Amino acid sequence: MMLKGRGAIQALAVLVIAAIAFGLWGWNTAFRPNSLEAEGRFVLAPGTSMDSAIVQLDQEGRILSAGSFGRYLRWRGWDDGGGLRPGRYMIPEGLDNRALARLLRSGAREAVRVRFNSARLPEDVAEAVSDQMALEQTDILAAMKDPLTAARNGTDVEAFRTRFIPNTYEVWYDMSAPDFVDRLVREWKIWWSLERRAKAEALGLTPEEAGILASIVKSETSQMDEAPTVAGLYLNRLRRGMRLQADPTLIYALGDFSIRRVLNVHRKIDSPYNTYKYSGLPPGPINYPEPAYLEAVLNAEEHGYIFMCAREDFSGFHAFAKTNREHEKNARRYRKALDKQGVYK
After folding, report:
1. Mean pLDDT computed over 191-209
2. Last residue of a domain, which of 163, 191, 219?
3. Domain of 202, in residue numbers
């Protein structure tokens, strides 16, 4: 009887020890604080495996024990990494593995402020945005140039580019490229209020045409003081049925943005963006104008100018003229200044 009793006690002791051991394992695996306070945000990229996520957390000094976090994820069956959602996370200090895993699986990620400006081509926008979000440049470009998306918005691919206004946008880090483009379009619609649409209509322009004209004004001048004057000049030419003869559209057509001096040979290119050859506005914008340039078009200055030429002092301002004779005088002064600087192309 004593042997049986001793065996029962030993068995009970083993069970107690096992329970304690399991409890300690469970405590260390699930409930012991593991996260460390670290400066900045933790970025989990799409497609990151569990092992890679653990290595990243460890290397960035986010956790005390990489091993215990891995054990917890495996214990929960999340070792394929499929349960971790990409995004930017703020990880507080003192989270246990259970809470940390819940955070990285919850999708309670932070929004990011994405900004792009001074962009000339769709590729420039895609490059700027991809550096700030979990998106590939090729995916952004495909979404920006998607003819079905443009058609759904009542326009073609060329004019659709006017829907992307340079600004700062708060979006989810892991937003898809089509969703990002849709967000830009929604913001464009908000910007084009009834009042602004009425102003464009009074000028004989659609919002898309105003965007195209604003892109030309932006290329012509970096001086916002004269942007409404430049806008008024091109509106005068449109109303008179004159070709715009805007050098920036010709440079865009040529695709050589190093050109500083437009020559007669350049004007021979057959392109709808060659406003020396074709009347009216080009089919799309030649860059992405900021809201200030759109406002400059909507509030264009009323005057009689139909010619402009860069000033010979290279100040960035222009000399405006109402007659061709006056314009030729201004042009001769500017050409002389270019010759003096050795600028021949």
Report:
1. 97
2. 191
3. 194-341
